[in-house]
Amino acid sequence: MKCESWMPLIEQRADGELDERAAWQVDQHLAACRSCAAFLERLRAEQAVYARYERDVEVTPAIWAAVEAKIREEPAQGAVSALARLRQWLSATVGAPRLSPAMAAVLVIIAVGVTLGVISLKNSGPAVPPNGVASNGSESNTPATPPSGPPGVKPPSSNPLDDVTAASKGSGTAGPRGRAGSRASRNPTPAQLVREAEQKYLTAIAILSRDVRHRRSNMDPIVLARFDSALGDIDRVIAETRRAVRQNPGDPIALHYLLAAYSKKVDALREMATD
Amino acid sequence: MTEMTATGVAGRPSGRAGAVMNTSQEVIRRARSGDEEAFRLIFERYSRPIISFIYDMVGRRELAEDLTQETFVRAHRNLGGLRDETKLSTWLFGIAKNVTRESLRSRVREDLKVAIDDDRVRGLSDGGLPPDRELLNRELNGVIRDALQNLDDDKRAVFTLKIFQQRSYEEIAEITGSSIPKLKTDLHRARAEMRRRIEPYLRVNHEV
């Protein structure tokens, strides 16, 4: 390798950016090559010169005074939620949302359809089988949900939607099933639809998250920070609504909010992935 | 470069790294909740490196002051979006880089092209009497400033962040949005260009 090719490596060595093995190789070369050793010396001399560089600028009290005056003019930080700020930014910068990766879009459409199906089915009343008893023993206050569930319902598991699904699947392990259980094996129950919708949302989120990850390095840090903040808010809502669903597996409002939160996350990710 | 320390923000020494971290995170949390005093501490800690970086990028004092103001106003506005509190300074430099880039875009690029005073450089390389150190340093400052302005924007940002702000390649990649291979190439070329400009001064500095 010519000395010229060693130069970038010597610079990286001086910057402390080489791993142990590469640094050892450079050191070996430097010990054997006077020209490259001289280059390293020159590099150090340059650094010493740059270290003495004085700028014709300093932080004056006037700068802080101006900053202070400007931030006092701005609305309070908490006045607008992070999500609202993101939405504001999205509507200002993205005139019309473009199609995201086709697969994700299809999944979202399906999930939205399923969500609507879930809501209409829940509102129709008689076909709803999940229990209406909250984990604390109190009855759900949702009129569309019957006060008692089918026999053989398993206690809540770590996944709230597992409980909803298991309660209506009619599996052999869950014990004898009534008419609702046998009907569920032919037509999907709301719980199954919710489960399907969640899976589709999660798949869409995974696809879009991957796209956003690839684009992160090219994004404006401010926009990225807002986006991350909004996403954090949405994740908190998802966590809270999942907890609510776990406590009230048959509560259609909790289910609705859970799917709405997933939908919001998909929207936010889609905007970032397609900008 | 280290992130905000207890010494930096509170003006008193602190012995433990954990305490340092807690203090800086606490300051950020307070600033987020609207505590103006906490935000002033952040300003005090970071305004100097930020204004230096901006000045290196734009080469004009008044403009650097204005853009520093803008950087901190934007930082205050978006503080809620800072997810990793241990990366406050990297985040601030990212904002400063964007503010600077917007400003540079809005100006006629040719305004920034400052011709190196060839006679001044030639006089030194011709072996004239070494000027006294103070005068030499003042001239050298001018040469470095002008040489920086002759680098293209990407190279100038990478060079400034590495040489003057002592940032790691990873941090520079985060701030500039460049890939590590690109910034290595930019840095190598920037160093070579700067070397050509300051070489005569480098020799004189050794002699003085």
Helix content, binned percent of chain A: 55-70%
Q: Kindly report how far apart the N and C termini of chain A lie.
A: 44 Å
- Poorly predicted tracts of residues of chain B: 5-22, 114-119, 121-129
Structural class label of chain A? mainly alpha
Q: What is the N-to-C succession of helices and strands of chain B?
A: HHHHHHHHHH
Order of helices and strands of chain A: HHHHHHHHHHH
Helix content of chain B: over 70%
Count of runs of 4 or more consecutive helical residues of chain A: 11
Tell me the major beta sheet of chain B: none
Q: Shape of chain A, please?
A: elongated
Rg of chain B (CA only): 19 Å
Q: Which descriptor suits the 3D outline of chain B?
A: globular
Percent strand of chain B equals: under 5%
Describe this structure in words.
The complex is a heterodimer of chains A (275) and B (208). Chain A has helices spanning 3-14, 20-32, 34-51, 61-73, 82-93, 102-124, 160-169, 179-186, 190-215, 221-247, 252-274. Chain A is mainly α. Chain A starts with a helix and ends with a helix. The model of chain A is unreliable at 77-84, 86-100 and 125-185 (pLDDT under 50). Chain B is mainly α and 208 residues long. Helix content of chain B is 74%, strand content 0%. Chain B has helices at 6-10, 17-32, 36-58, 61-78, 88-106, 118-125, 133-149, 153-164, 169-176, 180-207. In chain B, α2 crosses α3, α3 packs across α5 (88-106) and α4 crosses α5 (88-106). Chain B is globular, with a radius of gyration of 19 Å. The interface between A and B is large, with 48 and 62 residues.
